[in-house]
Design brief:
Elements (H helix, E strand, L loop, with lengths): L7 E5 L11 H20 L3 E8 L4 H10 L3 H18 L6 E4 L3 H16 L3 E11 L4 E2 L5 E4 L8 E2 L16 E5 L7 E10 L5 H14 L4 H13 L4 E2 L1 E2 L16 E2 L1 H4 L3 H9 L4 H4 L5
Parallel strand pairs: 1-2, 2-3
Antiparallel strand pairs: 4-5, 4-9, 6-7, 6-8, 9-10, 11-12
Helix pairs in contact: 2-3
């Protein structure tokens, strides 16, 4: 735990996604630099906590489960163990390596959601979404592939084009296909909840200006963030028509789960909470 009068350092690595076997590129790009820094901090006798864990919810897990004929939970159990073994073999010095499919994750994510709801930062709206009649389900972003409407890349996902980097609404894809059955989905309406990002613009802009001046941002990070601010922030959908995820605790939406990009960053907090029930001393303690 943080100690009064000491230098206290909390280190996290980007949470590796659970549906694959880590390779050298993952280790170099994800955990190695943080491990090196953690070792340096310990050599300096700084009070150091280094946590990480597998990111386990979302459509990529469901897709892998279909591929391997297992349940999503079985996929997570299998690959979490593989990840942990590989990092152990490389002697990555985590103080705690956890996962996001835990009761703490549900509790903390739902609490953050309730706080956003109480403060008026959520919107409710009907959206047009692709539905596969053959599979009898609405298709989450990663269950759809098609041609990017911006650059023409033919293997764009339903949430983002990996070639031009633009965010995509799945219904904008040209020639969409269901990844499960390769059928052609149809557009149908469904209700979802959105984070009201435009409400935050006035507070975000001065914070960004200060952070760009004092922080160590890469040119790429500055460019992407500036383009989002320049174009104006848009409400961002935080729910999905899936089974595998943190349940949405609100009447009318209890058959949905949180979008993995709302849920996964909260994993840093919940993994720390699995390490210590006094996790807030690490995450809500700017003086230390």
């Amino acid at each position: 735990l943080p100690v009064e009068g000491m230098r206290n350092v909390l280190i996290t690595s980007a949470l590796p996604y659970v549906n694959n076997v880590p390779h050298l590129g993952n280790i170099i790009g994800c955990v190695l630099s943080a491990d090196t820094f953690a070792r340096y901090c310990r050599l300096r006798n700084w009070n150091t906590l280094y946590v990480c864990g597998t990111d386990e919810y979302g459509t990529a897990t469901e897709t892998k489960a279909v591929e391997e004929g297992l349940t999503p939970q079985e996929i997570c159990n299998k690959y979490n163990a593989i990840h942990a073994d590989i990092y152990r073999w490389f002697d990555i010095s985590f103080d705690y390596f956890g996962r996001t499919t835990t009761p703490h994750q549900t509790t903390i994510a739902q609490d953050i959601f309730q706080r956003l709801l109480a403060r008026g930062f959520l919107l409710q709206d009907t959206v047009e979404q692709l539905r596969c009649e053959n599979c009898q389900r609405f298709l989450a972003d990663r269950f759809v592939e098609g041609t990017c409407p911006f650059c023409g890349y033919e293997e764009a996902r339903g949430d983002q084009c990996d070639k031009c980097g633009k965010l995509i609404n799945a219904v904008e894809l040209k020639n969409p296909q269901c990844k499960l059955c390769r059928g052609v989905p149809v557009v149908k309406p469904t209700q979802h909840l959105f984070l009201d990002l435009p409400k935050l613009e006035e507070r975000l802009e001065p914070w960004l200006e200060q952070s760009w001046t004092t922080g160590d941002w890469t040119a790429n990070a500055r460019y992407i963030t500036r383009s989002w601010i320049r174009d104006g922030l848009k409400p961002r959908c935080i729910t999905r028509d899936l089974k595998w995820g943190t349940p949405v605790p609100l009447d009318g939406f209890r058959d949905k789960v949180f979008y993995v990009w709302f849920d996964a960053p909260i994993g840093y907090l919940s993994i720390t909470a699995n390490y210590t029930d006094q996790w807030e001393r690490w995450w809500k303690n700017p003086q230390q």
